[in-house]
Amino acid sequence: MTNLLLEVNGLKKYFPIKGSVLGRKVGDVKAVDDVSFSVREGEILGLVGESGCGKSTTGKSILRLSEPTAGEVKFQDQDITSLNAEDMRKLRRNMQIIFQDPYASLNPRHTVEKIIGEPLLIHGMTSAGERKERVQELLEVVGLSAYHASRYPHQFSGGQRQRIGIARALANNPKLIICDEPVSALDVSVQAQILNLMDELRDKFNLTYIFIAHDLSVVKHICDRVGVMYLGRMAEMADKDDLYSNPKHPYTQALLSAVPDPDPDYQRERIILKGDVPSPSDPPTGCAFHTRCPYAMAVCSELRPEFQKVYNNHYVACHLYDDAVQS
Q: How many whole angstroms separate alpha carbon 3 and alpha carbon 237?
């Protein structure tokens, strides 16, 4: 059995809401609200959901780029939420991130050589010659040329900038890379190139990805397992093929019904959800989805459903699959 690389248990990230003249705390935005999952070595786990569902905050909280409010994050059986700043800095060579916007994530005043070489310097590669050689090697790996090292970010296209971002993430041979919507800002033709590159790099360097996206067709192309998030909570998680062919949660069913099909003659029944997504500062009681769910029962507004296994490797948080409720 493949070893577990990452375990997330009860992860929460609340942002305080300040009010009144004195700036006192009057509430919380519950961006991530009790999320648990695990990731195996060499796996690509997808996190999907509507904008504002908490998937990007989950990724940043795992890396402690945004400090978790509560919960436990274990990387190779080490609880990283209790590490001090120096120990966390050392661990970060094994845990990297690729940001969504390649235009904003690269310093426009630095050359490509400095951008990619900076992580090497931070983690102990003090020889300028070694760094230069490593940068050139990384540029070749991601499909660019060594002579690009002396250029600045504004001299590249969006796809090329994202390749530079990938090279920077690879600099210290990480084990886990969190990909925060890495292709959403790119043209469709370029998206395919970047996804294929990431797939090749996974095999070449035995990488593990958490792939955050809102495009379900992209996730289907690259991921092994998929977790669906709604309002800061995990609604469903399953192997990719199982989730797409047999979605259990009503929210997942609605999401998949909205995915365009390349066959113009294929008619899919579209599930239209009522109302808007509730505010994460004031989420509904019980199941967060019950205000929009076509199958909502009385218990849904009272009791929060457990995230439980329904069969094999398929997990869902829904009272429709609660034996106690059905009986």
A: 19
Which H/E stretch holds residue 179? Answer: strand 176-180
**How far apart are the C-alpha atoms of 194 and 143, rounded to whole Å?**
10
Upper half-sphere CA count for residue 46 (Cβ side, 13 Å): 26
Where do we find the tokens 């060579």? 93
Alpha helices in the chain (DSSP H): 55-62, 85-91, 112-122, 128-141, 158-170, 188-205, 216-222, 240-245, 250-257, 323-326
Residue type at 216?
A: L
Q: What is the Cα–Cα distance from 260 to 219, expressed in whole angstroms?
A: 14
In a domain, 302, yes or no: no
CATH of the domain at 157: 3.40.50.300
230 half-sphere exposure, CB direction, 13 A CA radius: 27
This prediction's pTM = 0.90
Domain containing 8 equals 4-278
Span 31-59, pLDDT tens digits? 999 999 999 999 999 999 888 889 999 99
What whole-number percentage of the chain has pLDDT above 90?
66
